Amino acid sequence: MARVRILDLKKSYGDFTALKSISLDIPSGAFFTLLGPSGCGKTTLLRAIAGFHAQDAGSIWVDDVSIGEKPAHLRDVGMVFQDYAVFPHLSVFDNVAFGLRQRKVPTAEIRARVGKMLDVVQLGPLAKRMPHQLSGGQQQRVGLARALVIRPKVLLMDEPLSNLDAKLRVELRRDIRDLQREFGITTIYVTHDQEEALAVSDQVCVMHQGIAQQVGTPWEIYSRAANLFVASFVGSNNRIKAAVSGDRLEVAGASIPCPFSHAAGPVVATIRPEKLRLGATDPATSICVRGRVRHAMFIGRELEIGLDAGDLSLTALLAADARAVGLGPGDEVDVSLPLADFAFYEDTENGSLIA
Ligand SMILES: Nc1ncnc2c1ncn2[C@@H]1O[C@H](COP(=O)(O)OP(=O)(O)O)[C@@H](O)[C@H]1O
Ligand SMILES: [Mg+2]
Asked: Total structural domains in the chain?
């Protein structure tokens, strides 16, 4: 178990700045996820922590030891890669044993530790197989076993599931989370998949353009996105132009007492699709709009509808009851937008949360 701290880390490639002063404090034993779109700097940050490339500025700490200048093999971190990176000419057993042999661990101990680790990742019976005889999911289990068997203080994983099909991804992410808990190992996990990040993490850092936009628990990130980037990247959100005028707020065709204090002018209101309700409700607690259904899609548990209400375009996720699934394009419906479920942001490119 180890606490990991990153202080003011910067990294450029030529004149392109990939990391713009990242600082993170990762508690001992946490499952910590770097989440962001492709190109936002996740791999760059992970490789700096692993020691695969040097940062331009800043420091990296594991407990009270600064590791930012140490060579990779002395950092006591294990790494799992997106493309598995198993050695094709070595058996499953030898792949997992590799790091132990490098560290000159006695043969009997290697046999015991590798055997145990292969059982943990459910590959015991496949110890003699070669990588080409394994499925993608099994190869990634080899990658995981190989990283864990050296008992690193920190486990780094760079999009370990993105080459697997959807069902296996969900299965393996659960296994990874269970293993991480069992080992209690501080884990820094990279993904561009927001659902995956919410599902497995103790804490998530949302990244965009080399900047940490918000760090929080999955619930904090989802329910109180710090800015408009996070609000639209994590889950989906309706985005509604609104305006403050005196102590009133004009939003979605309604004028309500402004629930926050702000200078007169435009702001952005957001509300999650699953918060919209079919039918009109109490105007004291909800804004009611009448709209025309653009599309209605039954997607299992829920029905997604897109609707136009004047110049508003909204998406609603409704419980798929008989009334909702009967809706089709062109139908007129009332929907309610509960006031308590709105969030308000500054009306700028990546506006910050106001309330
Ligand atoms: N070796 C490199 N040389 C130049 N630019 C790079 C290099 N590696 C990454 N980049 C750029 O830095 C940015 C961040 O890359 P990366 O950390 O791989 O993002 P992510 O893992 O979030 O997709 C991207 O715009 C990428 O094109
Ligand atoms: Mg990457």
From this structure: 2
